Input
Amino acid sequence: MSIHNNEIANMFDELADLLEIEGSNRFRVRAYRNAARTIRKHTKKMAQLIEQHRDLTELPDIGNDLADKIKTIVETGQLPLLEKVHSRTPATLSQIMKIRGLGPKRVKALHESLKIKTLDDLKHAANSGRIRELEGFGKKTEQMIKMRTEEFSEAEKRIKLIEAEEIATSLREYIKKSRGIKDFNIAGSYRRRKDTIGDLDILVTAGKNTDVMQRFVTYDRVREVLSQRETRSTIRLRTGLSVDLRVIPEKSYGAALHYFTGSKAHNIAVRKLALKKKIKINEYGVFKGEKRIAGNTEKEVYAQVGLPYIEPELRENRGEVDAAKRGKLPELINLEDIRGDLHCHTGATDGKNTLKEMAQAAAKRGYEYISINDHSKHMAVASGLGEKKLLEQIETIDKLNETLEDIVILKSIEVDILQDGSLDLPARVLKELDFTVGAVHSNFNLSRSQQTKRLLHAMDNPYFNILAHPTGRLINARKAYEVDLEKIMQGAKERGCFIELNAHPARLDLTDDACLMAKHTGLNIVISTDAHRTSDLDFMPYGINQARRAWLEAGDVINCLPLKKLKKTLSRK
DNA sequence: GCCGTTTTCGGCCCGACTGTTTTCAGTCG
Output
């Protein structure tokens, strides 16, 4: 199996860390980090590009030297320069550098003076009080290292967007009760609607006599106040999440919102553009020389560099600045574009509500249609439906449809894809359905090629329509199974099948990168909630967020189609 | 090590905070 982009990127990041510790040219170090980011974000595998004799120097931040190095890694699995550096500087120092507050200079000092190589060494040195003796270090730094070393694993963890939202909602309510609060927004990856969140960055504008900062640091869910200043404070909540609050002058609100929304890579791209126009953008505004020329709104900031407003979900430096320049930004999909949910369960298997309740809940959300996709018999734990029970459900739906006025229930199933790629129910019953959704619920550990073959074989079945949660990942709980997504997408397109973006906030499967890959492949997707109860239908916005991050427009998503067109699209005949 | 509407050399995003100093280096976002 060929090497993953992530592994290549990790090698370059580690090399950058170690070179930085050694005191190498900082722009050379940055070049490796930039390259790592480019490689990590790229939707196609480097191995494949090389196989196709593509010129890697066409990628941003990749020049002749790095193209050669990537080739060497793909061919040999190793990076000779990294091996060479390892002989001088232990690889584990790169781990230590991930501790907040420890950068290359301090790690170097710790290594040279105290022979610290590992996290364990560091912990012992801090506990024995040797670190405070070093020049440039002191009591507080030692204390900080002690604490951060202990909570290292916790700080590293990103939480699911939905978890962040629950926390953010309470915080918003609490903070908005402060005196004189005007604007309130949460910037960062939360505003970019990333599937996971590392911390919260809250921005507010407030009148002179506001007590917002005092209220913030005394919030009852605070475990620790990490820093407290007049305009900026940081707290750590009992859940471990760290939260920043900044009080911003009104005239800088747009500039600050832009700055703190990021992503970092997007900001750098925009600021580079500003440099060319001889203007400067920072979190206070846009400046020409000393003169402030904009900053009240984000729109103003973009306008100064000749760009239209760019939606937060797009701000990942994945080509959005260039597209904006050329007036080619996508018209992103909205919740209102969705006309139905195509993956829902009922109490017939592991759902909680009846057919009628699900249908009514969908109608209430303004949908034209909803499909019922209960599990098939192989999912015994979910009391999956066998042939007989499914036929009964079909009959019930037909009868129910006659009585429902403003919604149509589509007859479907979430049929198990068995290990050999065959489907869990025979064609004679599948053909009675409007369409099918196929899914993997077992044998996650097949090899990449076996798993790919399995899924392609499943799609060979003429009654297969949509591949549900295509990688099986559960955020922070279960890794995606190994599968060649590009082949799956190509295969789906050739066969007239589609793939699902599962909007369940614990899944969000496909990732944004994978959705982008689907778009590039020309394969349309379905955004479904996998609802197991009526309230789960409200997961749809999470799917929409993810889709927007992948540049998807209503035309890329088939459950934006009216019923008649949807049926025609799903038909493989 | 990359890159070019200041184009093959000489730049590389920008400012704030922290802890250590006594004017600043290191780190972060």
